[in-house]
Amino acid sequence: MELRLFPALAFASMAGPALAEQVPVPSGQMVEFVDLIKDAEGTVATVWRYRFVAPQIAREGGSVGVDAALADIDAICAAFVLPRLAAAGNAPEQVVISLSDRPVAFGAPVPEATQYFEAYTIAADECVWEGF
Q1: Which positions ≥6 away from 58 have C-beta within 8 Å?
Q2: d(CA 114, CA 60)
Q3: Residue in 48, 38, 56 with CA at minimum distance from that of residue 102
Q4: pTM for the complete prediction?
Q5: Beta strands at 115-123 and 126-129: parallel, antiparallel or unpaired
Q6: Which option is the CATH number for 2-129: 3.40.50, 3.10.310, 1.20.144, 3.30.160?
Q7: In 77-118, which residue ranges form alpha helices assigned H by DSSP?
Q8: Span 11-53, pLDDT tens digits
Q9: Contact (Cβ atoms closer than 8 angstroms) between residue 118 and residue 95
Q10: Which pLDDT belongs to residue 19?
């Protein structure tokens, strides 16, 4: 598995402002790209996971509800993920996009975190929602 992590974001609360890439979304919330995880060869399907931090989806004090957050994920797939896949010249069989209200280590259980996930197949340069 290939993992690319932006350490400045992982420790943002302790080290000051993060230097991660901010991504505009329809809800207007601040969303930051955290990392891309590419699954290792030999898995059933090639899955790339794009992970983002979106503090406004928090259960306590957040201003962005689930419907708006899911619309943001659709927009991220179309405006952020698709251009990068085209530039890379290849595409995985599936893309999973996640929003979390705080930095969370991949695969770590963090019950207090609010997280949303959506899966897409990339077909004809479009994100086709898979749903979980």
Answers
A1: 101, 102, 114
A2: 9
A3: 56
A4: 0.81
A5: antiparallel
A6: 3.10.310
A7: 82-88
A8: 333 333 445 799 999 999 999 999 999 875 555 678 999 999 9
A9: no
A10: 56
Rounded to whole angstroms, the Cα distance separating 102 from 96 reads 18
Q: Which residues of 92-116 are buried (b: 16+ CB within 10 A; e: fewer)?
A: bebbbbbbbbbbbeeeeeeeeebeb
Taking 50 as the threshold, does the pLDDT of residue 10 lie above it? no
Under 8 Å CB-to-CB from 109, ≥6 apart: which residues?
none
Tokens of 88: 């890379």
**Averaged pLDDT, 70-92:** 92
Domain parsing of the chain, residue ranges: 2-129
Alpha helix (H) ranges present in 1-132? 7-10, 12-15, 66-76, 82-88
Distance CA 60, CA 47 (A): 31
